[in-house]
Amino acid sequence: MNPNLAHLQPYPFAKLAKLKQGVEPVDKTHIALSIGEPKHQPPAFVRDELIDNLDKLAAYPVTKGLDTLREAIAEWLSQRFQLHGVCADTQVLPVNGTREALFAFAQAVVSPGSRVLMPNPFYQIYEGAALLAGSSPHFINCSAATGFKPDFASVPEQAWRECSLLYICTPGNPTGSLLELDDLKQLIELADRYDFTIASDECYSELYFDEQNPPAGLLQACAELGRHDYRRCVVFHSLSKRSNLPGLRSGFVAGDAAILEQFLLYRTYHGCAMPLPTQYASAAAWQDEQHVQQNRALYREKFAAVLEILDGCLDVQQPQASFYLWPRVGDGETFARELFRQQHITVLPGAYLARAADGSNPGLEYVRMALVATLEECVEAAKRIKEFCQ
């Protein structure tokens, strides 16, 4: 067996199941706010496109993906992030969900013995990818003091020197914080200085509150610097959150053509080509914005209702983007266990999404709440949480 498997920790939801083991909740309908699985209806036209192309299951797909899909993605990227063109042939690669791609990317680009830097708290795939690539994770704490952005200034120069890959997540999971264009430009400068790749997880980029001010992206920062080759920079996007299609397992990687050429080589051996019906359905989804705007409106309504109820009883604020709340509750594990027992609501302790670094676990006093349920369920959950806190 790969000895690096011994370094993997249980996944956050395995820890959560253990925390709840033996706890008898009250006789109320269960409300799950723990998993970031969208519950809004998927677009009907995407389903129809999938059905209309089921006959193409008889053909092997190629790893690089259909021209139709890559061109739809390139057009969407160019419009969404004000880019001066994206080459669909060399700068875009469809993937079977960004979870798989974020993991596989490290296996392709990380030098064994190097460091992989990542925010803390974080999406646990980053850590597992680093460990199984033979690298050492370096955690960059995100706290209230930094607006829940990674404290890049705290990273020792030696860690930058040994870095082969930096994972960033903007909007952040679980905090919903944003890296601004100036932040991203500074990271690009560091990548040039210390010769590492930036992998920007932007899967929550389309879940924001102000229609006139969408979150910035890493390729957008490149374009403003005149780096239209997106050197050292790669972004990851998904239809899971944007289009309520987590089961479609469809996303893409885009950016530096030289890096993507090698990543495509890796993926050719990896055997992970996206099925053709999925590709046609995905192209249709990337070409439509109306359903995405409607999706954002539903989340805005839920956040407004929930935060009004929780005002004054919980230390929580609206995030800059995403569908998560990140309230400070004292002891996250105790809060989660007792909330489950007393109100039959499941939330995720923040400590399960972070690691001890620089003497503390930045998730210890927090829980993550995913406002993915219906408006009615979210409102009911907020009322129960208020009762619990009081």
Describe the structure.
- By secondary structure, this protein is an alpha/beta fold.
- A seven-stranded mixed beta sheet has the order 2-8-7-6-5-3-4, sandwiched between helices.
- Helix 12 (290-310) runs parallel beside helix 14 (375-389).
- It has helices at residues 12-20, 44-52, 67-80, 98-109, 125-132, 157-161, 181-194, 218-224, 239-242, 257-270, 276-286, 290-310, 332-343, 375-389; strands spanning 31-32, 92-95, 115-120, 136-141, 163-169, 197-201, 233-238, 251-255, 324-325, 345-346, 348-349, 367-370.
- Helices cover 40% and strands 13% of the residues.
- The termini are far apart.
Output the keywords.
Aspartate Aminotransferase, domain 2; 3-stranded antiparallel β-sheet; Aspartate Aminotransferase, domain 1; single chain; 7-stranded mixed β-sheet; alpha/beta; 14 helices; 390 residues; 2 domains; 40% helix; 12 strands; 13% strand
Count the beta strands: 12
How many whole angstroms does the radius of gyration measure? 21 Å
Neighbour order of strands in the largest sheet: 2-8-7-6-5-3-4
Class by SSE composition: alpha/beta
Q: Architecture of the largest domain, CATH level 2?
A: 3-Layer(aba) Sandwich
What is the overall silhouette? globular
